């Protein structure tokens, strides 16, 4: 398979990442498997997003996509804030120069301990349920600190064409939009610093029209809900959902189309209706997903009843998504290549499998590659997001892979 577009080069037949040949990278990190993330590709992607979005729209990084501490530190110099979904992610974000009030803490199931840390730190807690509202009230009273809060809203619509739906219908995320007025009323009299709303309708969407439609729906919904708010809306997180191409027929998102639509929404609805609001677009995968690769070395190859299996020293315990077990309905192959022989033409159809004792450990099924031999490096692209920390690393107790940011 060919290299995906996005900045990866070649040197003497080897893939290069950040200009460094992969075998040299493997020697630097002490062997395979490992993830490597290219900060220059991240810089370019953030710059492209900045250029496409209106200048007064703030960009936030969703840490869940890749919480590597060094990467978070790098992102702190590029984005306006962070969205976190656990106390540890929050602490990583607070370890950067980013001010606490630019950190939003979302996600269901926050414990009292999580909420106490968030209130004390001064981050914005995005309230996901009526019980969470009551818990934050108690925490604020106990600490004597006015909690910064926003309501996460489960809209009455979804983002069409999303890889994962995070809004519409019954959801564990957010408060149903029809219940939001009552939830807002319950904030009255509490020692809260009310900020506004967070609405996230879906993720991994490659259709600009679908994203534009969802953003308009979110703006209209929040304008209606704002009438019941206990104070002016000073924060509106529109979510994100910008997708990246993983598979052969995928086409990149038309970012300019999304930006132009958002500019129109800002002029027509958001600035007139919410003049004090800081408008945020929250992106994770879109900023880092294409800037990372996963490298693993061939340790065996075998034939079984006419099918060739190439066995590598990594697998789904590091890169679950590429195995098809992270939300794919029909399994399809991620972009894959023989990294130390990228100029060779494909001459064999093989299945690339990991070292785990399960048939689910399949990284590439019936892929055309230059005949991989023992010692060759296999590279999986689009590995910068939802890779290591989204995978069952403890399964079979293999050692963890290295992660490097170059």
Automatic annotation (TrEMBL):
<dbReference type="InterPro" id="IPR022644">
    <property type="entry name" value="De-COase2_N"/>
</dbReference>
<keyword id="KW-0663">Pyridoxal phosphate</keyword>
<dbReference type="InterPro" id="IPR022657">
    <property type="entry name" value="De-COase2_CS"/>
</dbReference>
<dbReference type="InterPro" id="IPR000183">
    <property type="entry name" value="Orn/DAP/Arg_de-COase"/>
</dbReference>
<dbReference type="Pfam" id="PF02784">
    <property type="entry name" value="Orn_Arg_deC_N"/>
</dbReference>
<dbReference type="InterPro" id="IPR017530">
    <property type="entry name" value="DCO2ase_PEP1"/>
</dbReference>
<protein>
    <submittedName>
        <fullName>Pyridoxal-dependent decarboxylase, exosortase A system-associated</fullName>
    </submittedName>
</protein>
<feature type="domain" description="Orn/DAP/Arg decarboxylase 2 C-terminal">
    <location>
        <begin position="34"/>
        <end position="384"/>
    </location>
</feature>
<comment type="similarity">
    <text>Belongs to the Orn/Lys/Arg decarboxylase class-II family.</text>
</comment>
<dbReference type="InterPro" id="IPR022643">
    <property type="entry name" value="De-COase2_C"/>
</dbReference>
<dbReference type="InterPro" id="IPR009006">
    <property type="entry name" value="Ala_racemase/Decarboxylase_C"/>
</dbReference>
<dbReference type="Pfam" id="PF00278">
    <property type="entry name" value="Orn_DAP_Arg_deC"/>
</dbReference>
<feature type="domain" description="Orn/DAP/Arg decarboxylase 2 N-terminal">
    <location>
        <begin position="41"/>
        <end position="288"/>
    </location>
</feature>
<dbReference type="InterPro" id="IPR029066">
    <property type="entry name" value="PLP-binding_barrel"/>
</dbReference>
């Amino acid at each position: 398979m060919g290299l995906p577009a996005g900045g990866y080069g070649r040197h003497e037949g080897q893939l290069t990442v950040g200009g460094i040949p992969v075998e040299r990278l493997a020697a630097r990190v002490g062997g395979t498997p490992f993830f490597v993330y290219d900060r220059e590709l991240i810089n370019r992607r953030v710059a492209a997003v900045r250029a496409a979005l209106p200048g007064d729209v703030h960009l936030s990084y969703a840490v869940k996509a890749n919480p590597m501490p060094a990467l978070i530190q790098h992102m702190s110099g590029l984005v306006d804030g962070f969205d976190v979904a656990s106390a540890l992610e929050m602490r990583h974000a607070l370890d950067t120069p980013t001010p606490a009030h630019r950190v939003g803490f979302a996600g269901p199931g926050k414990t009292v301990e999580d909420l106490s840390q968030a209130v004390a730190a001064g981050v914005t807690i995005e309230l996901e349920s009526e019980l969470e509202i009551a818990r934050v009230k108690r925490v604020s009273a106990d600490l004597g600190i006015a909690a910064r809060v926003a309501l996460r809203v489960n809209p009455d619509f979804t983002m069409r064409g999303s890889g994962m739906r995070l809004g519409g219908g019954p959801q564990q995320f957010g408060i149903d939009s029809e219940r939001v007025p009552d939830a807002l009323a319950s904030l009255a009299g509490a020692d809260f610093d009310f900020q506004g709303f967070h609405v996230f309708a879906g993720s991994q969407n490659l259709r600009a029209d679908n994203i534009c439609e969802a953003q308009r729906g979110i703006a209209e919904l929040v304008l209606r809900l704002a009438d019941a708010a206990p104070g002016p809306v000073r924060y509106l997180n529109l979510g994100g959902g910008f997708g990246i191409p993983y598979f052969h027929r995928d086409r990149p998102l038309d970012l300019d189309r999304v930006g132009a639509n958002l500019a129109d929404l800002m002029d027509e609805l958001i600035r007139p209706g919410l003049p004090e609001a800081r408008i945020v677009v929250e992106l994770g995968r879109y900023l880092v997903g294409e800037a990372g690769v996963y490298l693993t070395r061939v340790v065996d190859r075998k034939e079984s009843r006419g099918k060739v299996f190439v066995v590598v020293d990594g697998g789904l315990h590091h890169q679950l998504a590429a195995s098809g077990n992270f939300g794919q309905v029909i399994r399809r192959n991620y972009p894959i290549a023989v990294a130390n022989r990228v100029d060779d033409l494909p001459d064999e159809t093989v299945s690339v499998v990991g070292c785990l004792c399960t048939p689910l450990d399949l990284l590439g099924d019936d892929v055309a590659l230059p005949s991989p031999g023992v010692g060759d490096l296999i590279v999986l692209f689009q590995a910068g997001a939802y890779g290591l920390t989204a995978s069952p690393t403890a399964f079979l107790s293999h050692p963890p892979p290295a992660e490097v940011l170059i």
